[in-house]
Amino acid sequence: MSSSDSIKWRRDIRNTITANLITSKFEKNEEGFMPHGLLEKIFENEKFSIEKILGLTSSNEDQDLLQFVKTSPKLFGIVALCQQDEYSRRRAMQLFKQHHYDDTELPLPEPFHDQDSDRTSVLATFEEDLNNTDEPIWEDWNVKEFFDAQRMFLTPRFDIRKDNEDFDRRIILPFIYKDVMPNKGTFGVLYKMEIHSSHIVGVADGEAFNPLVAVKHIIPKDKEEHQKIIKKWIKEADALRSMNKLRNSHIVRFITAFRQIGSPHNDMHLYLMFEWADGGNLRQLWRSPDMAKQCRSLARAVIEQIKGLASALNHAHNLPEGLQYRHGDLKPENILWFRGNGGLGTLKIGDWGEAKGHNVKTEFRPNNTTAGFGTRRYEASEVVTGLRTGRTGGALNRRSRLYDVWAMGCITLEFLVWLIYGPGGLEIFNASITGDPDTFYQIKQAGVEKVARVHDVAVQWMDDMAQDSSCKVGVTALGNLLEIVRQELLVVEVDYSVATGMPASRPMTPKPAAQSPRNLGVPDPKDTHTLPRSQLTVPNSSGAATKVSRTTQGFGSKPVRGKGRVRSDYFHHRMEEMVTGYDDDDYWSIGSTFRQIPAELEQLADDSRKLSAYRTEYQNTGMSTLDITEHMTIDYGKLRLGRDWTFNFDNGVASSIFQAVRKFGAGPSTASPSTAQLCYECSQLRDHIWRPTFRKLYYRDDLQSVALSGTCQLHSLFWRTCDQDRGAENDTVSFENVNSALRLNGGGDPVLNIVKDHGTVLGMGEEVQISFPELLPAGSHGHLEIVRQWLSHCNEKHINYGCRASKHRSTASGTDRPTRLIYVGEPGYNRVHLYQSTPSDTEPWIALSHQWGPDRSKHFSTNSSNVDDFMEELKFEDLPKTFSDAVKVTQELGCKYLWIDSLCIIQSGPRMDFDREAKRMEMVYSGAYCVLAASCASGHHSGFLQQRNPSEYLRMSTGVGNDANYSICQTIDRFNDHVLEGPLSKRGWVLQEHALARRTIFFTEHQTYFECGGGVRTETMTQMNNNLAALLGDPNFPAILSTAKLGERILRFQALYEQYSRLALSRDWDRPTAIDGLEQRLLSAMQLKGGFGVFDGGETRGLLRRSLLWHRGDEEASLQRIKSVNGKTPSWSWMAYTGGITYFSLDFKMYDWNDVVSPWTDGARGDTALVATARRFELRDKSEAKAKFKMDAGEGVESLQGLCIVLGRYKGDMSVDEKTHYVLLIAPKDNSARDSVVYERIGAGYLLGADMMHEEGEVTIV
Ligand SMILES: [Zn+2]
Ligand SMILES: [Zn+2]
C-alpha cells in the first residue's frame, strides 16, 4: 500500500469503527462503545482483513502473528486506530505478542503520574531496549490515543449467571436506553434501562430474557457511612441471590449487582439489576382504569395471585438448610406487576432491601434491629408492643417473619376492598385508616403495658364486607379469604417461638398466668388445625390483644396452625386449600356490581381534604414515609468523655504514600507472594474475611485445639488473638469485620487488621485498607517519607483546622520565636550549631519533646561555659542519639531549625536563663511546624529511630493457588497504650508540650503516630479519632472548649488536671510551672479568670466551686505539701501538693452554690485568699451515702467534728437536713495559734445538712 492509500485506508477503518459504535445512555455524557463481537465481524470483511491491514504473507512467522491477532481482536482494533501505517501496526502487534499481552490484559493501566519522573506507560517499556537507529512507534500522542480508544472496546457483558461485578469507572456500560422512574425504592433511585442484546450472556437455552431491566442505583442517605451502604448493598444482593435460587415465580428475578469503582472522589456507585415490571406495582394495578373495569371478574385471578405471593413468602421464610429471609417492608409498592397477556398478569415480591437473612440459631439472639426505612403503614403491632423472650428477657427482632404475614394481611384486605367496593372504595378505605402512625393496628396504654388491637375502621369494614352475599364464609372464595385475613393474618397476637423459629424452651415454663384473659378470641389450635370451610365461624370483631405465648412449633415442614397470627407456611397452605377443588362458579363468582359503601363507613374517611392529601402523597412519591429521627439531647450529668476510638482508613492518602514510598524501593521485602498455610475451613474464608459483612463464630475449645495442632496459621493467629484478649472468657468467640478490621465478639477495639497490597482488587464490595503488612525500617527514607506525606496532606487539607502555626503571631511574651534554635541545614549538612534568633527570622522550626532520663550525669545540655562553643558547632558525633535522631528527622522533613530544651536554654551557671525561657514554652510548642515526640526514648542517649517491636501477620490470597494480595495483621494501632499511657506521657512537662503542639509525630517502639486537628494517623494507614484525646490533639488547644457547653468544659479541664496531677516531675516545685502555658491557654480560650488550677467564672458560680472540689486520688495514701521555692501556692490549690487528684462528680444543674470570695473576685482579699463563711459540723452517721471526707493528709486523720466551708448544696424538695452539702474542710493555719483567723484546707467531702451546726463567721483560707 502506498502512503496515501494507507492514510485513506486508515480513515476508512476509523469511519467504519465509528459508524458501528452504539451510544451508551448510562452516564450523562453519552459515549460510544463497540458491541460485543462486531469488531471480529468487521475484520472478517475482505476489505479490512487482518492480512491486508498488516500486510501478512504466508511465512511461518506471519502466520503465527495472524493466529495471535485473531485471539486479540480488541488490541488489534485499538492498534488499527492509533498506528499510522502497516509497519507500525505490525510492529505494535509483534510487541504485544512478544510480551504476551493479549486481549485479557486490557485495559492497560494508564501511565502513572509521578512528580519526579516522566509519565511512563507499559507501551513505552516495550521499546526500552530499542536501538538508537529505530524510531519508536509509541509516542506521547498515540499512547494517549491508545488509552482513549481502549475504552470503546472494553464494554463488558453482563453474565446473568454471575453474582456481581466491579467495573472501572471509566468503562462504558452497555445500556442503550435509560429512564428515571418516579418511584423511589427503599433507598436510591430506580431506572428503567435496556441492555444491548449482545452484552447479555448466560441465558439458558429456551429461556426468554427481556433486555429491559430495572436498575437500582443505591444512594446513601445524608452522611451515611460508606461502609454501611456497602453492607446494605451486599446484604441485599445476598438476599436476592438466595431468592433467585428458589425459582419462585412470584419473586422478582434478580439479575446481577455491579459497582463502579475508581471514581476520583470516592463516590458511591452501587447498582442492583432486576427484571423489569412492565405494569409497575400493585398500587398502580389498583388504580388502573383498565383493571377497575374488569376487577369483579378477576376474583379468581386475584386469589390465585395472593396464593402465589403466599408461596413466595413461605419459600423465603423457610429456605433450605435452616436459612430464612424475612422481607421486612412488604407494601403494595414493593409488589410488582407484570402484566403479561391480558387478565391480571403476575404479581411478584420485589425490593428485598430490608430483607434480613438469618439461620435459626442467630435469629434468637436478643436483638433490637429496626430497619429505619420505609412506611409504617403496613407495620405490625409488635414493633410497638414488643416481643420479649421468656428466657433472656431481651427484646427480639420485632421485624420477624410474622411481621411480613401482618403486612400480607393488610394487602390482602385492601385487595378484598378493591374487589368488593371497587377502586373508589379502596381509596375511601385507605383514607379511613388514620392515626399516628396510620397503621392497621391501634395502641392502647394499659398501665405500663402497650396493648394493640386491629384498627377499629378495618374491623368495621370487615364486618360490613361479611354482610355481602359475595363474601359468605364457607360459601364463596371471597368469604373464605376474608376469614383468613381476620382470623389468621390480621391478628395482633404473636407467638414468639413462631416468630423466631426457635423450638420451645424447657417444658415447665408455661405458667398459668400466660393463659390471661387477653387470650380471648383466639381459637384453640386443636380446633383450627384442619378446619373444613363449613366450620369457619363468624368472628369476634374486636381482634385479639397482644400477648406472647409459647408453643412447641417452629417454622417447619408441615404447616400447623399455631396460636395467634399464622406463619407463612400455614397461610400458603390455606390459600392452596381454598383454590384447589372448588370449581363451581358460585364459589368464585361475586356478581358484577360493587357493594355500596355504607354511609357510616364513608364518614370514617376523616374528611375530603385528608382523602385528597392521601391521594397526592401516594401518587407523587409512591410511598408514604414516616422517618422517625430521635432528637438527642446531651445530658452532661451523664456525659463521660470516653476512651473509645473510632478507626477508619483513608485509601486516598494511603495510595499517595505508596506511590511516594515506591521511589525508595517497592516497600518491605517481606510482602511475599506466598500465602499462609491454611486448613480447609480457613481456606474457605479467604474470599470472605475481607468483606464488610464477614462475621464468624468459633467455639473457643475448637479454635484452641486446631490452633495447637499447628496445622493452620489462621486458626493459630485467631487463637492467640483471642487468648490475649478478653475473648478468652467466653465459650464462643466471634470475629467481625468492621472497617477493614476484625473485632472480637462484636465490640471493643480492632484486634486484627485486614490490609491489601497497593494496586490490587479483592472483589465485590471490598472496603479494604491499603497498607504494608510490615513496617518500613525506622529512620529509613521510606519511613520518613510517610511522615512527610502526613505533613503535606495536613498542610493541604487541614487549612481550617489550624494544624499549621501562623507565621505572624504575636504573644504576650514579646517576639514570637525561641531565643535560640539549633541550625541543622539540609540532609548531610555537617556543621550543626546553636543559633541566636533575630526578629527578622521567619523560617519554621521543629520542637522536640523528650524525657531527660534518670541519670543526671549523662544529661547533655547547654550551660554557661559551653554555650559559646555550641554557637560555633554542635559536633554531630558528640550529640546523644536522641538528639542526633531529631536532627536527622528535622533535615529529612525539610526544616532547617530544631528546638531542644536542654540545648536551647542555658540550664546552669551565671548565664542560666531557664526561669525566663520556661515561661515561653507556650510559644515554642504552639509555634513549631510540628513537634517530634521521642516516645520510645528513655533518655538522651537511647534514640528514637530504633527497630520496632515485630508484629504478627499472615499473607493471604483471593482464590486458591494465587499469589498473596492481602494480609491479616495483628493490630498495632493503640494510641492510648503507646502514646497517651506511654512512658513519655508520664512526664509532667510533656502534657503541655502535647497539648500546645499543633501537630505531633510520636515515635513509639511499636510504630509512628501522627496527630493533628484531623485526628491520629498511623503507619498502618489507619485513621483514629476520639473525643477525649481530641482536646490534647487540638492544634489550637483548647479551641474546642471555646464552643463547648459549660458541662463539657468542666469535664474536660477536670480530666486534664486529673491526668496532669499524676505525671512525674523531677522537681516537685515545677508543678505549677510545667502546666503554666497550658493553664494560660485554657483561661484565655474560655475567657475566664483564675489560676492555681482553679477557674473563676464569676456569675457562673459552679465553675469556681467545682474546680475547688478536688480530693486526694484513691491511689494516694496522702498528698504531700510541696515546699515551694517561693511558697506562694495556696493550700486550696492541688498544685500545692504532690500526687494524683480526682474531682467530686456533682450532677449538673442539681446544686445551689454558696458565696465564696476568690482572688479574682472584685474586692478580693489578697492574691491567694479564699474568703467564706465557716461552719462547724459534727458527723453523726458516717455511712458513705450520707457523708464522706477525703483528707489531704490521708486516711485516719478525719475527725467527727470540725470546721468547713460549704460550697454547694443539693437542690430538691427534701428538707435542708436531708440535703447533701459539699464542703472544704479547714483548720487554722498555725496550730499553735488557736485564735488565728487564717485557715488552710485540709480536705474535702460531703455531709448532710443535719450534721451542720452553727456558723463561725467569715474566714480566710490561704
Ligand atoms: Zn484454619
Ligand atoms: Zn492536620
From TrEMBL:
<dbReference type="Pfam" id="PF06985">
    <property type="entry name" value="HET"/>
</dbReference>
<dbReference type="Pfam" id="PF00069">
    <property type="entry name" value="Pkinase"/>
</dbReference>
<dbReference type="GO" id="GO:0005524">
    <property type="term" value="F:ATP binding"/>
</dbReference>
<dbReference type="InterPro" id="IPR010730">
    <property type="entry name" value="HET"/>
</dbReference>
<dbReference type="InterPro" id="IPR000719">
    <property type="entry name" value="Prot_kinase_dom"/>
</dbReference>
<dbReference type="InterPro" id="IPR011009">
    <property type="entry name" value="Kinase-like_dom_sf"/>
</dbReference>
<feature type="region of interest" description="Disordered">
    <location>
        <begin position="502"/>
        <end position="561"/>
    </location>
</feature>
<feature type="domain" description="Protein kinase">
    <location>
        <begin position="176"/>
        <end position="490"/>
    </location>
</feature>
<protein>
    <recommendedName>
        <fullName>Protein kinase domain-containing protein</fullName>
    </recommendedName>
</protein>
<feature type="compositionally biased region" description="Polar residues">
    <location>
        <begin position="531"/>
        <end position="555"/>
    </location>
</feature>
<dbReference type="GO" id="GO:0004672">
    <property type="term" value="F:protein kinase activity"/>
</dbReference>
